[in-house]
């Protein structure tokens, strides 16, 4: 690249940087509620010198500098990603205690790391053989977007793995509850015994349900909350069946045994369906790899004999 073109490229990049800076400064205007917030804030109950700081990291000054940029990044990720209500439900299904804002902040951090990785790759490509600046910019942006989507995909994977573990634990927990109820204990006593003697994801959910019942919530409503927190139809039927049995006084042990049997049958059907799909997938290497080699070994001697005969 000659001198005039290089100067034009540097000037264009500088102008683009100035436009971006001015655009961000104008986008971060102080809103009306931000102006009124210092006057409407609740007064402190004690001296500010005696209280702790609001910093969450060992670098409070850097945290205050990065906070506005982080807020803009969280708003951008919120517009790009899934809705807040859906994300909150997925966090509950994954068993995570973090809030939606904390998860968005983690997505922003992953996006920054992705941009840094894309920038490193772009610099390596430029140092190696060179490339178009537009293509390299798209590569860096693509790395950042993929990193944000990877964090969301990781949450989806955590939800699926947790629900699979709950589905595996459900028949055993239902049988234990049926044994406890058949021994003469009530529904709350059976839940307490199962929570004390078992460990796992479903046991933690039952412990949360039991805590709601101890706090004054009716057991049926606590079971309905358990069904709402999970996305498994089998667990929803289990919670609804127990709630109906408690409300109407039907034999709870029979209901629990039937629920456990239904879950085992559903797991057996899912296993058979997965086996059928794997069987079809195994036909691909057989048809496209093993069968051509077998045909070649069968046909090649005949071709060799015909060639010798001619």
UniProtKB/TrEMBL annotation:
Name the record gives this protein: Pilus assembly protein TadB
Entry keyword set: Cell membrane, Membrane, Transmembrane, Transmembrane helix
Any GO CC annotation of this UniProt entry: plasma membrane
TM region(s), chain numbering: 6-25, 108-128, 134-150, 280-300
Source organism, top-level taxon: Bacteria
Keyword DNA damage: no
Major place of residence: membrane
Residue ranges constituting the Type II secretion system protein GspF domain according to the UniProt record: 175-299
Places the protein is found: Cell membrane
Membrane topology: Multi-pass membrane protein
Pfam families reported for this sequence: T2SSF
Protein species of origin: Cellulomonas fimi
InterPro entries: T2SS_GspF_dom, T2SS_GspF_sf
């Amino acid at each position: 690249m000659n001198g005039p073109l290089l100067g034009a490229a540097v000037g264009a990049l500088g102008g683009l940087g100035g436009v971006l800076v001015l655009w961000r400064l104008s986008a971060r205007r102080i809103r009306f509620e931000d102006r009124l917030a210092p006057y409407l804030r609740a007064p402190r109950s004690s001296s500010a010198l005696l209280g702790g700081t609001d910093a969450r990291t060992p670098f409070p000054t850097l945290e205050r500098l990065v906070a506005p940029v982080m807020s803009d990044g969280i708003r951008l990720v919120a517009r790009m990603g899934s809705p807040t209500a859906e994300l909150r439900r997925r966090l509950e299904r994954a068993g995570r205690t973090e809030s939606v804002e904390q998860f968005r902040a983690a997505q922003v951090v992953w996006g920054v790391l992705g941009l840094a990785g894309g920038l490193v790759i772009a610099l390596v490509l430029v140092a190696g053989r060179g490339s178009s600046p537009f293509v390299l910019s798209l590569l860096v942006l693509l790395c950042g977007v993929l990193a944000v989507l990877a964090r969301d995909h990781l949450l989806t994977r955590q939800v699926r793995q947790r629900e699979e573990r709950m589905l595996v634990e459900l028949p055993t927990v239902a049988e234990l509850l049926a044994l406890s109820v058949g021994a003469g204990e009530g529904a709350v006593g059976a839940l307490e015994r199962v929570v004390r003697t078992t460990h796992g994801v479903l046991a933690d959910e039952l412990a949360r349900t039991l805590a709601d019942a101890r706090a004054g919530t009716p057991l049926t409503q606590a079971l309905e909350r358990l069904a709402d927190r999970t996305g498994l139809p089998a667990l929803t039927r289990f919670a609804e069946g127990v709630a109906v049995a408690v409300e109407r006084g039907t034999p709870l042990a029979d209901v629990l045994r039937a629920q456990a049997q239904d879950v085992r049958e559903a797991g057996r059907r899912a296993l058979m369906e997965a086996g059928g799909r794997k069987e079809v997938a195994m036909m691909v290497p057989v048809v496209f790899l093993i069968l051509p080699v077998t045909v070649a070994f069968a046909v090649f001697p005949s071709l060799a004999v015909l060639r010798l005969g001619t």
